[in-house]
Amino acid sequence: MLKRHWLIAGLVVVAIAVFAAFQFKSNDQPKYFTTKVDRGDIHQVVEATGTINAVTTVQVGSQVSGTISRLNADFNSRVKKGQVVAQIDPSLFEGSLLQAKADLANAKANVVASQANLEKAQATALQTRADYERTSGLTKAGVMSQQQLDLAKANADSADAAVAAARATITQAIAQAQQKQAAVTVAQTNLDYTTIHAPIDGTVIARSVDVGQTVAASLQAPTLFTIAQDLTKMQVYASTDESDVGMIHTGQIVTFKVDAFPKDSFTGRVSQVRLNATTVQNVVTYNTIIDFDNPDLKLFPGMTAYITIPVANAQNTLRVPNGALRYKPDMPADQVRALYKQYGLISSPAGGTQSAGTQGSGDTGAAAKQRRAHTEGSQGGGADAGQQHTPRVDVSVVWKLRPEKTLEPVRIRTGITDHTVTEVAQVLNGQLNEGDELITGGTAASPGATRAPGMGGSTPRVR
C-alpha cells in the first residue's frame, strides 16, 4: 500500500511538471487575434438623429390681455381656417369701445357747433363791412366825423378776423373728430381680437391655456394653441456633423426608424442642408431637412428619428476588418524597418525596391511612385519617427499572419467603410487575398523573447 501511494504521488508530480513545462513553453509564444479577409458588399452611410416636425406649424397667440372665457378647441382637434378656437372676456373692451364712440359723437357735435359759429361770424362780418362803406360815404359828404369812420373800419376788420378764427375752429374740430374715429377703430379692433380664430386648416397639437386663465400680452403675444397644417406630409430635422455634410446632397433617399415602431423602417428624401451652423461644446452640426409622407398619421411631431443616409456602395469587393487597420505590433522600430524592407515596403539602400511576393491587382507605375512616397515613417505599424512625410489618410498598413506564424506587412489603399469593415481599393505593397489572416490584436509574449516575429522566434509584447 505504501509503494502504491508513493507511485501515485510520483505520477502527480510528473504530470504537474509536464503541464508547467508546456504552459511555460506556450507562454513563450505570442497569441494573436485574427480575422480573415473576405469579399462582400459595403454600404457606407451617414448616421444622425433628428426630430420629426410638421412642414407648417403655426403658433396661435393673443394680441390683447384678458381672461379666457371659452375654449372651442382641444388637443388633436381638427380646425378650419377662420374657426373660433377661443374667446377672451370682452367686457372691458366693449366698455372702451362705447367710450370711444361717445367721444366721437362729442367731436362731431363740436364740428357742427364750429360750423354754426362760422356762419354767425360771416354774417357779422358782412354787416360791419356794409356799415363801414356807408360811413365812408357819409364822411366824404361831411355828415359823419373821421372818428366814426375809423371806428367802423375797426369793426369791419375785427369781424373778418372772427371769420378766419371760426374757420380754424372748424378745422380743429374736424381733426378731433377724426382722432376720435381712429380711437373707435382701435377699440373695435381690440374687441375683435378677443375672439381667437384659427389662421390655417390643421390639427391642434398643443394647447397652452385653460378656461379662467389670464393671458398677458404686454411684452409679447402669449401662445394659446399650436396648429400643424398637414400631418400627412412631415419633415425630419436631422443634426449632421460637419464632417458628413459634404457627402449629403439634395434628393438623396434616406431611411430612418423611431422608438415607437422599432420594427418599421420609413423612407424620406433630403430636401435641404441648411447653412446655419449650430455649435455646442465645439461640436459643429448642420440641420439636414428630410421630407417624407405620413399618410396613415403613424408618426407624431416631436418623435426622435434615427436617420441612415447612404452615401456610397461597393459590390463584391475585398474587405478588411477595421481592427486590422488600427493594429500595430509592439516591437522596436529597427525590427519594423527590417520587416518593411524584407517585404518591399521601403526602398533598399541601393535605390531599388525589395518586393516579397506578387503585387496585388492594380499595382501600376503610379502605385510604385506611391510606394516610394510613403515610407514606414508615414504609415501605421511602428514607423520610423525620423521620417517627415505627411501620411495619406487612405493608405494604411495591415499585418498578415503567415502559416508559419510570422508577420508580414501589407500596404493597401483603403476605400469606403461601414465602420466595421473597409474596402481594399488597391494593394500597394505585398499580397493580400481572400482568406488571408489579418491580425487585429494579441496577447503579451514572454519577456525573454527578443527576435522579431517576421524573422522567426517570438515577439516581445504585442497589443
The total of helices stands at 6
Approximately what portion of the residues adopt beta-strand conformation?
Answer: 25-35%
Question: What class would the helix/strand composition place it in?
Answer: alpha+beta
Largest sheet: 6 strands, antiparallel, barrel
Unreliable sequence segments = 348-391, 448-463
Overall shape: it is elongated
Number of strands: 19
Biggest β-sheet: strands ordered side by side in the sheet: 2-11-14-13-12-15
Indicate the CATH class of the domain at 29-41 and 317-455.
Answer: Mainly Beta
Distance between the termini: 53 Å
Q: From the 3D coordinates, which CATH architecture of the domain at 29-41 and 317-455 would you assign?
A: Beta Barrel
Rounded to an integer, what's the Rg over CA atoms? 48 Å
Helix content: 25-40%
Give the SSE string: HEEEEEEHHEEEEEEEEEHHHEEEE
Per the CATH scheme, the topology name of the domain at 29-41 and 317-455 is conserved putative lor/sdh protein from methanococcus maripaludis s2 fold
Mean pLDDT: 83
Structure description:
- The chain has 463 residues and is α+β, with helices and mostly antiparallel strands.
- Among the domains are: 29-41 and 317-455, conserved putative lor/sdh protein from methanococcus maripaludis s2 fold (Beta Barrel); 57-89 and 195-227, OB fold (Dihydrolipoamide Acetyltransferase, E2P), CATH 2.40.50.100; 91-193.
- The chain is built from 6 helices and 19 strands.
- The chain has a 6-stranded antiparallel beta barrel.
- Strand 13 and strand 14 form a beta hairpin.
- The radius of gyration is 48 Å and the shape is elongated.
- The two termini are 53 Å apart.
